[in-house]
Amino acid sequence: MRKGRFITFEGGEGAGKSTQIRRLAAALRAGHAREVVVTREPGGTPLAERLRAIILAGKARDLGDFGEALLFSAARIDHIDRIIRPALARGAYLLCDRFADSTRAYQGARGGAGEDILATLERVTLDGVRPDLTFILDLPPEIGLERAEKRRGQGGVDRFEGEALAFHAALREKFLDIARAEPDRCKVIDASTPEDEVAEAIFSACLKKWPLPALGEKQWA
Ligand code: TYD
User: Fold this and answer.
1) Tell me: the pLDDT tens digits for 83-118?
2) Distance CA 183, CA 176 (A)
3) Which of the listed residues 38, 45, 49, 106 should we mutate to test ligand 1's pocket, taking the one with most ligand atoms within 8 A of CB?
4) Which letter does DSSP use for residue 61 in this model?
5) Ligand 1 within 6 A of 125 CB?
6) Which end of the chain is more exposed for a tag (fewer CB within 10 A), N or C?
7) Could you tell me the pTM of the whole model?
């Protein structure tokens, strides 16, 4: 039986997901009884991290959008089986940096893999394991790519950072479409505002979904 809370963070490049995940994890750990697990995609298990290295090095690019979607999904299956499902069964907060919406957006942005086929792939991959809450950190792609470049320093761009600006603009629209289609699950957060404000917006959305217990009760479980 599933008792945990599954929260995913999505968005384009340089939106500040990792910082915000760290902050939410710290806030949850400070005040709550539940275990907090932080993980990421592609990755999270040794096998999925190996697939990550292949994909982000651009070695699977020739497979095309659908082929890459299959690899992301294979990594996701291992991650769900070994990390996500067990953590949710233990009752943990599971915070994941990217998940299935990234496949919908990144592999769907160019139209090379149709929405229907990606939706079917998602359904069989997730097998019922769906996020309770998804934060879409929204930012104009020009700003995001500039931030990602600063963060990167001298290192080269990865498989997706190197795509043209038009791709990143399409990606942003894909994420906003997902949020419009599933407003109960997805919260769009303006990631161009100061870091503290973003953290505040994220934390208050969590409080709204899972309200604090009445005064006198010990913890917000
Ligand atoms: P990462 O370094 O984690 O990027 P970021 O810091 O922007 O999250 O690399 C993950 C990259 O893989 C990122 O460019 C998005 C892409 N990706 C997909 O294309 N499809 C997917 O399903 C996932 C999970 C990620």
Assistant:
1) 999 999 999 999 999 999 999 999 999 988 999 999
2) 10
3) 106
4) G
5) no
6) N
7) 0.94
